[in-house]
Model the fold of this input.
Amino acid sequence: MTTADLWFDPKCPWAWITSRWLLEVERVRSVRVRFHVLSLSLLNEGRAVEPWYREWLDSGWGPARVAIAAERRCGNEVLRDLYTALGKRIHLDRAPLGRDLYRDALAECDLPADLADAAGATEHDDALRESTSAGLGPVGEDLGTPAIHVTGPDGEVNAFFGPVVTPVPRGDAAGRLWDGVVLVAGTDGFFELKRARTRRPVVS
Done:
């Protein structure tokens, strides 16, 4: 069994697509995904960015803080279902970010409703910073999310940013992409493969 650790920002549509792809990979390959929180709001704190992106980042603190608070109180395993519950509302339903969304997602996962209070608090920001650093440290640059660490049978960890893909690869296509990504990312001295994006993220 191969472990794939995914660092996600709940608000990032590209991370959402990658996470749904990895769940497809679980069905067709001997892979188990573990989920971790990464905050693009924290990562870009104090940086000069376009005004529209600053507005996007400012609203991203809430869901990331709720997710990290849930992990701290209830354990890492709750993130799998909580991310799905948050992501469905954020990306599929286009529900407005706020207390109602967080409470509904928490209720779906049988998690304490008061965790929604973390959205507007800073008490878990150190944990959020630690989780973000853990995800991006081995990648080597502050690239963002999705960030994936793949632990092979020998215990070696291969860390990389991406893949950035849309729409979600399903079934055999998901498995083939996994095979290719692991092969390329595991090649000694390989650093980058990229082309311009020509589509907006298809999150369904």
Summary: The CA atoms of residues 62 and 98 lie 8 Å apart. DSSP finds eight helices and four strands in the chain. The two ends are 28 Å apart (CA to CA).
